[in-house]
């Protein structure tokens, strides 16, 4: 269980912060003009939980993934891709206005990983504070975990073998009690999109 979030309030509505493990199904829309459109369902009741819609243009200030709650139909978060960053980086905004942090791919690591930093914790560049969360594992196979600053696993992502091919991605996310499910799911979608692009680029180079 995540006992204390490193930011407040959570992106998730307070009614969606559970005292039990929650499971979600993430589906990339088969028909998408942006290639960055996801629908997320509560795996327990198959009800829509949130939807992610990408940008048509990959330009500075335009390359955003917008997240809307299915419950309230409000925009609860925005991922804004930082195009000039050294490694893949997305700024995380609450409701599109308040930046609460960012997720970036670690530049030097034994295994590939992403770090989630919180805004206002001090330090930039090599003097950044320790990440609030670290995400590591096999990203191409969609089998990875998210750990908090104490090294405790607060979320798991795993591939759903029922439907799995490039044009329609479907995988599952488990979120620990007390953890902000929208932050977890937003990070998972950003990572999924980043590795989709790397996978396609690699296939083009090999062909």
UniProtKB/TrEMBL annotation:
Q: Which Pfam families match?
A: LOR
* UniProt-listed InterPro entries: LOR (IPR007612), LOR_sf (IPR038595), Tubby-like_C (IPR025659)
- For this protein, the parts annotated as crossing the membrane are none
Family, per entry:
Belongs to the LOR family.
* Protein known as: Phospholipid scramblase
Species in which this protein is naturally found:
Eucampia antarctica
